[in-house]
Amino acid sequence: MKKVYINSVASITPQKTFDNSEFLDEVIIHDNQVVSAVEPVYKDYIPPAAARRMAKGIKMGVVASKIALQEAGLENVDAIITGTGMGCLRDSEKFLSGIIDNNEQFLTPTSFIQSTHNTVGGQIALELQCKGYNFTYVHGSNSFESTLLDAKLQLELNEAENILIGGVDELADHTTKLHELIHHIKKEDITTNTLLGSKTKGSIFGEGANFFVLSNKEQESSYAEVVSVKMYNTLPLNDVVQTTLSFLKENNLTTKDLDAVVLGNNGDVEFDRFYNELTSDIFSNTQQVCYKHLIGEFNTASPFGVWIASKILKTQTLPDILKLNNKGTSSFKHILLYNQYRGENHSFTLLKTC
Predict the structure, then answer these.
(1) What are the backbone angles phi and psi of residue 251, rounded to the nearest 5°?
(2) Which structural domains are found in the chain, ordered by start?
(3) Keyword Transferase, does the record have it (predicted)?
């Protein structure tokens, strides 16, 4: 089977990450429980008339995909695979509000049409005139990992040569209030740089779009090789360490072979225990990296972790703001990513240098 490479990356998040020439050179410290994406100038990528008709999530996805394609030096791809937890949430809320406000009569269908989960993938395909495989995964916090696994299998079997994958989620007012009511979002004021030390329930919430071009052909622009991806819907706390060791063993590695581990800690005292099981045990002597304190929690936050790991492997640098501990690692070859959300949808992704 062929190897699979990440040939380009693109990220729009609550940090200024859309400029690929930088790697978190300037970090924005947010002091809200809900943090919005730092958006690029959309008119540089999308005609203003078209952008006005697009929801925020669609705009973020379209622009991130264009940045990824541009860096990979491609005008088109063989397939487009997107992942999203909640889809185009703002249009969903707009349509549902319209039903209530208009007593279920005289409804305009526009918001409904644009609220479906596959709108982003469809819009990207229309922009590119790509008539190939187009699929959207909606698997909660494993949505992006599902796209990664799908693309990896197709590329390994040589069913495609270049595949665009990505994860997109946007914030919406009503849904955010519901998360606040059920304490998924922290009640107390907190800044992003103190989030990981928090001892209370809930996290901060964010939004973003992260896209990558995967290929079975290595390029000069290649960031990393995707070695393995594995997902679990449920995983008991007591089994996390053994499952991690088994995953590494399947790939002929031990914890000593890892140069860094990228974890999805989000400051929720109840569910960060899954990460603590690893950091206090088998990864106590490994460089630990965290990222959700910069962008908040959302269903497709994990691809930002892939963006970070890819950048680390290509630049061989690790910004201090990402370090959970400091092991003074001088070079990076193998990086393991582990993520879960509220005890469910666990994922392991292994990357290595090209």
Answers:
(1) -105, 20
(2) 5-215 (3.40.47.10), 227-352 (3.40.47.10)
(3) yes
Does this model's pTM top 0.70? My answer is yes
- Is 317 buried (19+), middle (13-18) or exposed (0-12) by CB count in 10 A? exposed
Q: How far apart are CA 163 and CA 73, in angstroms?
A: 13
Contact yes or no for 354/222 (Cβ under 8 A)? yes
Per-residue pLDDT at 108: 78
> Which of these, 170, 182, 197, lies nearest to 265 by C-alpha position?
197
Alpha carbon distance 215, 334 (integer Å): 19
- DSSP one-letter string for 16-67: S-S-TT-SSSS-----SSB-------GGGTS-HHHHTTS-HHHHHHHHHHHH
C-alpha distances (whole Å) from 12 to each of 8, 60, 128, 193 are 14, 7, 20, 19
How big is the chain, counted in residues? 354
* Per-residue model confidence as pLDDT tens digits over 70-96: 999 999 999 999 999 999 888 888 888
Rounded CA-CA distance 52/70 in Å is: 23
Q: Taking a C-beta distance cutoff of 8 angstroms, is the pair 203, 266 a contact?
A: yes
